[in-house]
Amino acid sequence: MKVNNLILLSLIIFVFSKQYAYCDNFKYGYTSSGYKYVIHNHSESSYQHVWCSQHNGIEEFKNPDKTRVDCLTDTHATEFDFANKWAESVGQALHYSKMTGKRAKVVLILENPKKQMCYYERVKNLSKIHDFDSEFVTPEILNLQNGKCSFKNCKCNRKKKKISFFSKIFKIISNYN
Ligand SMILES: [Zn+2]
How far apart are CA 111 and CA 40, in angstroms? Predict the structure, then answer.
């Protein structure tokens, strides 16, 4: 193969691989029963609190069908999700839009914006086709002090020792059953 052709082929492969980037950039944990889950440093609700108060929205707005909108603003029914739940976020936002008559919006939380942007790209591309709005937020909006946010109920402020103590007890009890 000629060098020129090789360069052209490499370029095509590069462009193609960028367009359909493989995304998988999460921290995983495993439960004692082997269930795999994504580890998040802060709770989803912490991001929701900040964003929703900045946009003068109502948090956990109850729909007639008992589903809840994460944040209802004057203009939007907004769904918050971590990047690993990008697919679910779209369905939920569209449903809440139908329930409230407001425009659907997905706010995707990118804990590692450089590595997780490809998930937002998926949502953004879908938003153009299916006529809803989207944006992303990063831990920057939490205004972290020494890696912790100001929400007492957030994961980052829970005492780890207590959790591991209770989970040990839970493990012992569940082993007896
Ligand atoms: Zn936090």
Answer: 8
Residue with token string 């990063």:
138
Q: Tokens in use for 73?
A: 């603003």
Burial classification of residue 45, based on how many CB atoms lie within 10 Å of its CB (0-12 exposed, 13-18 middle, 19 or more buried):
middle
Whole-prediction pTM value? 0.78
Task: Give start and end residues of each alpha helix (H) in 20-159.
Answer: 44-54, 86-100, 113-130
pLDDT along the chain (177 residues), means of 10: 76 63 81 92 97 98 97 98 97 97 98 94 97 97 95 89 64 69
Report CA(153)–ligand 1 centroid distance (Å). Answer: 8
- Count of other CB atoms within 10 angstroms of residue 68: 14
Compute, in angstroms, the gap from residue 139 CA to the centroid of ligand 1: 9
Coil, strand or helix at 57 = coil
Instruction: Single out the residue of 123, 150, 148, 133 nearest to residue 50, CA to CA.
Output: 150
CA of 129 to the centre of ligand 1 (A): 34
* Tokens read off for 43: 């709770």
Secondary structure letter of residue 63 according to DSSP? P
79 close to 69: Cβ distance less than 8 angstroms: yes
